[in-house]
Every structure is written in structure tokens, then in C-alpha cells.
Amino acid sequence: MTARIREFLRNRRDDGPCMVLDLDVVRDNYHAFAHALPDTRVFYAVKANPAPEVLALLASLGSCFDTASVAEIEMALAAGATPDRVSFGNTIKKERDIARAFELGVRLFAVDCKAEVEKVARAAPGAQVFCRILCDGAGAEWPLSRKFGCVPEMATDVLEHAHRLGLEAYGVSFHVGSQQRNTGAWDQALASASAIFRECAERGIHLRMVNLGGGFPTKYLKKVPEVESYGEAIFRSLSRHFGNRMPETIIEPGRGMVGNAGVIESEVVLISRKSEEDEVRWVYLDIGKFGGLAETMDEAIRYPIRTRHDGGPKTPCVLAGPTCDSADVMYEKEPYLLPVSLQIGDKVLIEGTGAYTTTYSAVAFNGFPPLRSYVI
């Protein structure tokens, strides 16, 4: 937690749980990505945190933007990005949304099947498309499902279909899984991308770009490699699989750009036990899965939690949210060690929460207001 966030929380009026994000950290993260991969364009994943202040800062620094909807495209443009710095990276798009993006000047679209190619060809004639391929995501703390992407063997046919329909078959994309701690995770995906480049070239289609996706982690409880380590590993893989014919490359950091820039302040609402003999306490906070901590699902993301009692004896606790939904339990399979002296009314600080918390808390479930966000 930065000194600026600490000072803000010290002086703020208590109005429920909130997330405070320090723009200085976001700025440092952007420069770290730009330095680690100097020949790669950065497309910030807007879905990670679409706060106008974050988007405006990144636009001023020269970032491009990966968007999932027309609304996110409009946010990026309003923040100062030009349409040539925006990618419509969702592979599942309504045709009218493709048309609206094209009207706004966007020319770069993701696809992963022939049906999506046909929608783009009708609504955005002549646009550039890149085909997303599946990869296993081994080593990621938040692995991705098979919802997005096609098997690499299918990608060449998808891109040839785009070419025949008058689109520019521009490249290949993949995502190695969110919170990826294995710096070598990009190697196999790049091997697949290189094979697709060769197969397309044999059909007279010359691809130009590889979208390396996201997956760059932020630090939670476990140590993660520095951004420079990812840059070095990715460059080695690019050299191994593409040789002197290096493609254009882009990355789509989201969590790695804003995750460590934010802290949530929450309050302990209740501490109880389920029986007199139970050694595990239940600690209920005024924020839970439905208030912004959805990534605790399956206990995949374990956030660092700080209290004023740190340093004393700890005891295992089940950590839960305040809603009347039995799924609103963050950590139970592996109880969280919290201070024995923790009391009802105490504040807790949940670190590394600058990404995906405010957007997951978009609806006032059970009447609890969406998570307040302050950008400083």
C-alpha cells in the first residue's frame, strides 16, 4: 500500500467499503511493460478497471486499448485514444456492435470461427482480423476456459475465410491464463502461432501480427516474477519460433497494469463460531464475492489482508461476505489466518485489488451499493 493511499484512507469519511487506486503505480507499471517489451504495443485491457482517470492517464502515455464492448470502445475514445489505438478483442460480438465500432473508426477485430468472420465481413468490410487460438494455460492461478479461441489446426481455415471475404487476415492471438506465474508459458503458444503463419503463407496469406494476450500477474500472497523476466522469456521464444522474420506484437495487460495499484478498505461486521467446540472462526466483512471479490471463486485468488492487529497470534478463519447468499464465502476450503485479537468494527485492508473489483461490483446485489472507487 502506498503512502498516498494510506493518507487518503486516514482522512476519508467512512461510507462503507471502498477501493482506492494510486495512479502513480499505474504509471510505473505502464513504463515497466514498455521497457520490458520495447518493440511491442501495449493494449490495456479496459475490463480490468475502466475508471476514466486510469484510461486518460494511459492514453496520455501512448497506450492502446483492448475492449470487450461498444461501451468500452466509447470509454477509450472519450479518454483520448484514437480509433487506430483500439481493438475490439471480444470474439463474441453482435453484428450491430461490430457495425457501431466500425462507424467509430475501429478497424481491428478478434475472431475465432468462420461465423464471426462473416459478421465482421458484413459489418466492417476491409477490417483487420486476428484469430484467437486455444492454449492450456498451465501455471495460471486463474486459468481460462475453452470459451474463447479455436484449436490451432482450425485457425488457418478461419483466416483464409476472412481473406476470401475481403478482410485483412492480420494475425493470431492467444491468452496463457490470468495471473500466469510461469514466464515460459508463452513458448508453446508462439510455436503454434508460427506454424499458422507458415500454413497461411503457403496459401498466399501473409500474416503480420501476434497478439501475446494478457496473463501478466500482480503480487498477491505468492511472489511473482518481474515484468522484465517475462519480456526476456517472450523475446527468446519469438526468436526461436520466428527467427529473423519477427512479427508485429501486442500485449494486453490488465491485472498486471492496475492490480497492485489498488487497496480495498473493509469493515468486520461479525465474528462467530458454528459450535462451542469449533476452532475455526467465521469472520464476516462488509464486502464479499458480490461486492467486488468475485475472483475468490474456488479460492483462486488469495488477496493479502492487513489489520491493525498484525504481528500478534493468528487463528484460522473462514472469510465471508455480508449478503444473504450461501455462495458469498471467500475462503473456507483453506481458512485464512487472521489475528486472534480481530474485533467487530475493525477495518481490514485487502491489497492487490485494483483489477476487476469495481467492475464485478456493478449491481447492487441484496441492496448493498456497488463498490465505491476513488482514484488518486
Topology pattern, helix = H, strand = E:
HEHEHEHEHEHEEHEEHEHEHEEEEEEHE
**Approximate shape:** elongated
CATH class of the largest domain: Alpha Beta
The DSSP helix count reads: 11
Look at the helices and sheets and give the structural class: alpha/beta
Secondary-structure arrangement, i.e. CATH architecture of the largest domain: Alpha-Beta Barrel
Question: How helical, in percent, are the residues?
Answer: 25-40%
Number of strands: 18
Cα-atom radius of gyration? 22 Å
Residue fraction in strands: 15-25%
Termini gap: 13 Å
* pLDDT averaged residue by residue: 96
- Would you identify the CATH H-level superfamily of the largest domain? Alanine racemase
Please give the domain count.
2
* Low-confidence segments: none
CATH topology of the largest domain: TIM Barrel
Report the biggest beta sheet as strand number plus sense, adding barrel if it closes.
8 strands, mixed
Describe the protein in words.
This is ornithine decarboxylase. Belongs to the Orn/Lys/Arg decarboxylase class-II family. It comes from Alsobacter ponti. Residues 25-258 form the Orn/DAP/Arg decarboxylase 2 N-terminal domain. Pathway: Amine and polyamine biosynthesis; putrescine biosynthesis via L-ornithine pathway; putrescine from L-ornithine: step 1/1. It is a single chain. The chain has 376 residues and is of the alpha/beta class. It has 2 domains: 23-259, Alpha-Beta Barrel (TIM Barrel), CATH 3.20.20; 260-375, Lyase, Ornithine Decarboxylase, Chain A, domain 1. 31% of the residues lie in helices and 24% in strands. It is built from 11 helices and 18 strands. The strands form 3 sheets. Strands 1, 12, 13, 14, 15, 16, 17 and 18 form an 8-stranded mixed sheet that branches. A hairpin with an 8-residue loop joins strand 12 (262-272) and strand 13. Helix 2 runs parallel beside helix 3 (52-61) and helix 8 runs parallel beside helix 9. The longest helix is centred in the middle third of the chain and has 17 residues, at 186-202. It is elongated. The model has no long low-confidence stretch (mean pLDDT 96).
